Amino acid sequence: MKTNIKLAAIITYASVFLGVIISLGSTPFIVSTLGKSEYGLFSLVNSIIAYIVLLDLGFGSAVIRFNAKYISENNSTGQRNINGMFLLLFSAIGLVSLIASVILVFNFSSIFSSLSESELSILKTIFIIAAINVAVSFPLNIFSSIITAYERFVYLKVINLIRVVLSPAMMVLVLLFDFRSTGMVTVALVLNLTIGVINVVFCRTKLNLTVRFTGFDTKLFKEIFSYSSYILLSSIAFQIYTNADPLIIGMFLGATPIAIFAIAAQLNTYILNFSNVLASFYLPKLTKMIVKGADQAALMLELVKIGRIQALIVGYIVSGFVLFGQSFILIWLGPDYKYAYTVALIIIIPQITSIVQSLFATMLEAMNMHRVKAFIYFSVAILKVGLTFWFIRFWGITGCAIATAIGMIINVCLNNVYYKYKLKFDILHFWLQIIRVFIPVVLLAGLSGFLLSFVSITSYVYLGMYVIVYSLLYVLTMWLFGMNAGEKKMIEGPVRKIALRSQA
């Protein structure tokens, strides 16, 4: 399984990197083709759809956990029965989501009173197509969750790599034919349907998966719902953090400021995608460890190991953005979007602590002990919304970012109190290990920032040169001062194999 995870992680990083490069290349074309207003509407639809997706009620993670549990117990009958129930549930949820979307469309005029009639017309059209996409995705997504439970990560990541390449290419193509935002959401619908069908075929032919409709097991459903309800609460909180701001901006400031905030959010998403790759693989593994009776020491070893690796990754990405982000945005999109750098910084920097501890959330789900964390996250998210409504009146989109940052800081502090005093994890040891990574990062970034203050970066060529130099300095600094013996061994092994193959 280690080989599977390593190969899948490599493919995932390749997908994320390729996705970022393609997105960075296509975004200026998309923004200029649609214009600020329609690009803002497209971003607004994505924010609204993110809330419709919450109708899965947290059952997506439950599909992974309960399938992984039955696989570990070699209980094929239970697996067939539970997947039959999941398929019925998600089909019903898909229908409910479509009905809710139609009702919502009829109320857009009163909700988004700052939009013009033409903007409302575009918003309604692209939202309906996106809503259909979500409705059909609910039952189809079960099969990707089942594949995850089987830890067939390589297949999933190859499919995702194909999606990463095809999606922006098809969107640019429809824009060239002047289908605008309507064509873009239609592309997403067609692509999701195609990949969903491929996953169904894979489950049937490669995993020999069969689904049995034997009736509705009320007792089992209560157990699933008890597990899923707190994941749902966390998902709601997450959507509030990531998608409430565009909605509030649309209510108070109009479509154009949404576009600027959307660029900052997009940059934040890039960083999250790079930083959280490893944690995404660990729910099946941790579930199986816990089912087999792993003790707290074994779990803590995994948490520290992955936390340090994530710290090495996020340290490079965030420090690089701090140093080069503003120059990049000016070259990429021009001075109209310059302020997106400030907004992105306010959001990104407090999020570092959550990223390095992301495996804690996965572990709690595996232990079925995520209730308190969900309540903390949801409570802080509600506070964040209140602060956003207050701050936006004084500081505009900056106020939205500040409210988000305050919420993140409070959330991390409360969670660490819970980990230490309730779950009895050695949080001090964890953070001492993380700080050992970040001290050389901060010193290197500070020195680099001082030296860069004497130069002007005005083209991709100069930007690329400075990024390469900083990257080499980062690798050298981490090797000498940031990495421990185990982390160096992880790198030395593959490098030695490549060297021996090249000599042969």
TrEMBL record:
The chain crosses the membrane at residues 7-31, 43-64, 85-106, 126-147, 154-177, 183-203, 224-241, 309-333, 339-362, 374-395, 401-418, 430-454, 460-481. The keyword Ribosomal protein does not apply. It is a multi-pass membrane protein. Keywords: Cell membrane, Membrane, Transmembrane, Transmembrane helix. Its main location: membrane. The keyword Transmembrane helix applies. This is Oligosaccharide flippase family protein. It comes from Paenibacillus tritici.
